[in-house]
Each structure stands twice: as structure tokens, then as C-alpha cells.
Amino acid sequence: MKIAFVGKGGSGKTTLSSLFVRHLAATGSPVVAVDADINQHLGAGLGLDEDVAAELPAMGARLPLIKDYLRGSNPRIASADTMIKTTPPGEGSRLLRVRENNPVYDACARPVELDGGAVRLMVTGPFTEADLGVACYHSKTGAVELCLNHLVDGRDEYVVVDMTAGSDSFASGMFTRFDMTFLVVEPTRKGVSVYRQYKEYAQDFGVALKVVGNKVRGEDDADLDFLRSEVGDDLLVTVGHSDWVRAMEKGRPPRFELLEEANKAALRTLQAAVDATYEARDWERYTRQMVHFHRKNAQSWGNERTGADLAAQIDPGYVLQESVIAPA
Fold this sequence. Notes:
This protein is of the alpha/beta class. It is about 35% helix and about 15% strand. The chain contains eleven helices and ten strands. The strands form two sheets. The chain has an eight-stranded mixed β-sheet with strand order 4-5-2-7-1-8-9-10, sandwiched between helices. Helix 1 packs across helix 10 (about 260-275). The chain is globular and about 60 Å long.
């Protein structure tokens, strides 16, 4: 299952996504964690020292390798150079699976040990001073979108993406790539403003969206009443103060089993909500939306950028699904 954590800057989405990754790892589930935020903090949230996290290989810097591998023997793609972030797979494309080893993981993923379990961590790479004035951060997150387009994940397999803050993911079709989007919201007017944007954008695409109330002080006070009045039934669960998180943020996290029981219960609720979407998966719609956004990107900038008719990359009879067998 593919899960996105989104929210405004400072909402706590990276902390919650790292807790969810730890929770999944503790259950023994295979997990790929992806830091797609412009501010790269997921590695630190998973316990890596800052210098180690800074040395993680950037997906954005390895985009040619990613494109070349995913292209495979797809005859509709003339060269890896003509692939853009929305390029869909077709007959002959190579696909990514959560549990496998492949050249993309070899180049871009690193194992992170978490209380006896391990997850794969991938990062887009930070927005550097060299990028200013010449690059857009969407060009970095494009590596994530391309991988999601070619990813086949099954039941009890998880890809958790810590997205960039705000509503930037709607600048492309990446917001439609997830089985569940968790919107982390503080009980403030600014906190719910991003929720309204996401709700408006997502409702036309069948995006499953649930709100996680963060920094909520108690179950019976005005914070909870405020969130209920603003987001209604989209409010899935709330999370309050955590001494465990405070210790983690100081670089001294206790064993994960010592996380407060109320917060453990919240994480179990998140997983139950994700797992419940499995039966509602619609691979045909997923592929159709992929094609829709590829056509839009091709017309607006992709054809001019590559000098090719990118709509010709679309394989009209192809549907990405769990049973697809890709070439080796």
C-alpha cells in the first residue's frame, strides 16, 4: 500500500510518518520509506545521525539510472532521455516491487535498522544553493513520481512517503499515486487551511484522504471540538504530547515499545485505515489517472522539453496491476 503524509510546515507530518514507519517495521512488514520533502528530516526521524542522513544517495541525482532501468525494452519509449516524471509503464517496462532487490534500490535505497527490523529509506535529495534560479524542486520529486508510476505493491507491503509541505504535490499528478493520504493538521485556522485545499483538489480524483489531528491537548477540550467542526468525518484520529517523541528529537529515542499506549493505538488506527483501502483498489482507474496527467504534462511542457511526442509513450491496452509480469 502506498501512503502519503502531507501537511503544512511544522504540522508534525515528518514525525508522524517516521512513527508510522517504525510501527510498520515493528509488525515485521516490508517497508520502503521515502523522504520527498524539500527539507530532508525523515532520516533523522528514523534515528540516523545528521551526517549519515546527509550522505544518503539522492534520487534526483540518479534520475538517468532510474529512467534507464524502468524503460526496459518498452518500444514506445525511444530513449531514457524522453522519459519525464509522468511517463507511464507499458509492455516491456520494468516494474518495482517492495520486497525485491533491483538496481534502483541498489543505487538509491539504504537499509535503516529499527528495533530489530529494517526498512529501506530513499530520499529525493535536498534543494541546494546550486539549484537556486535554475531548478525547480518538482524536478527532484519527479524521481519519486516516476518510481510510483512503475511500482507494483501488494497486501501487507508498504511505501510511506513524507511529502513536501503545503499543496505542492498537486502541481503534478503525484497526489493520485497513493492508496491513502494522511493530512496532518494542527487545531488552528492555518492548520485546517491546507486541509481545505487538499479536499478540494482530491475530491474529483477519488483520493482517499484522512485527517490526523496533531498537537491536540486532551480528548475533551476545545482542540478536538475545533477539528471536528472543521474537518468533520475526515478526522480519523488525534495525537497528543509524547515524551517518547521529545526524547527522539533530542537524539535519544527509547525502545519503540515504550511509546505511549495512546499513541500506539493511534498508529494501529492509521494502519487499519490503510489496510481497509486494499479491497477498494482500482488499477484501471490508477492507470487511467496516470495517463491523464502524462498527457497534460506532455502538452504543457514535456513535448517541447524533449522534442518528442510523449503521448506516443502511452500503451493503450496496458493496465498496471499486481499480476503484471515485467521483463527481468
